[in-house]
Amino acid sequence: MPTIRKEILIEATPEHVWDAVSDAGAVHHRLVPGYTEDTIMNGYERTLVLPNGGITREFIVSIDDKERRMAYAVKETRLPLLHHHASFQVFPHGENASKLVWITDFLPEHLAPEIQARIHRGAEVMKETIEAGVKGD
């Protein structure tokens, strides 16, 4: 099973980054605006409404405040996935910065280039959005 690990250095405290990452119902505001138009929560299920009219349904598997780790699994998307599980974990980096580690496991293997591109772009948007949130505080 392929694994993609992405480390994102963010100019914001771990507390600020974790606050954004753990806000499972605000993905469209706090993490990837433009990538998502809305986020709908129904218990452990999260539905991301995409700009092109598509949706992605996910299960929120864990939100661990102590470890600053959030895990989720994709249940439904336009990609022909057999399996998708990912996690975010926030670590201190220097004095007032953070390292956000995004790990994604998925099948089938041939989707690796597409998923890698999505993670790369998503990471850029997350960094920009979280850092802009710090400047706006």
TrEMBL record:
<dbReference type="InterPro" id="IPR023393">
    <property type="entry name" value="START-like_dom_sf"/>
</dbReference>
<protein>
    <recommendedName>
        <fullName>SRPBCC family protein</fullName>
    </recommendedName>
</protein>
<dbReference type="Pfam" id="PF10604">
    <property type="entry name" value="Polyketide_cyc2"/>
</dbReference>
<dbReference type="InterPro" id="IPR019587">
    <property type="entry name" value="Polyketide_cyclase/dehydratase"/>
</dbReference>
